[in-house]
Amino acid sequence: xxxxxxxxxxxxxxxxxxxxxxxxxxxxxxxxxxxxxxxxxxxxxxxxxxxxxxxxxxxxxxxxxxxxxxxxxxxxxxxxxxxxxxxxxxxxxxxxxxxxxxxxxxxxxxxxxxxxxxxxxxxxxxxxxxxxxxxxxxxxxxxxxxxxxxxxxxxxxxxxxxxxxxxxxxxxxxxxxxxxxxxxxxxxxxxxxxxxxxxxxxxxxxxxxxxxxxxxxxxxxxxxxxxxxxxxxxxxxxxxxxxxxxxxxxxxxxxxxxxxx
Length: 261
What we know:
Layout: H1 13-19, E1 21-27, E2 34-40, H2 44-54, H3 62-72, E3 78-86, H4 89-106, H5 126-129, H6 134-141, E4 153-157, H7 168-176, E5 190-195, E6 198-210, E7 226-232, E8 256-259
Parallel strand pairs: 4-5
Antiparallel strand pairs: 1-2, 1-3, 4-8, 5-6, 6-7
């Protein structure tokens, strides 16, 4: 079989060791259309050609059928490594899926001069994480509005000390103190930890302590700040992970807000 410009047909063991996981594209040499995006390691990028040659009787497969057509004209598939040195198969899956989504986003029919994908799957976890409009993503992930809060509550906004991977202990530590509160605090039964306008945890307030030397952030001569003792409580799922943005006025800077007390 003649081949086009002596194409690469395999990687040496040393090259395989160096490039690790990668994402690749297959191109039809006749019209230069990309017809397949895949991920792999080793000599996976070249395996499709051998699959088409060795299994001439396989059931209809657009990719293998196209490769056979290319071979029938004494040509070889053009192979491209799009990104290599990826840290894991999971990362390779994500890169592969993003590229497939991008091409489909450019042209859902594939009837263009640049690509016509034969991929039978739209990429890893496409149904959940695939390309969508920004409006759709916002709708999908935006926290629903919190129903009316009937309990006596203090909302504590903790954006600086919040991250989604923090432990329950770290979340409590960031929420319980220390706040410049007045006597009104004694009326509250519950404390809500709020970040990005969303309720992250709910605590029962048992008592209040004045910040003293040895407590986080204490400074000599500071104005009184308070923190509550308490524990996380169940039974308020109607509030957890719900948005309370509507309870704060635009530009409101106070790090806490009283409700019903």
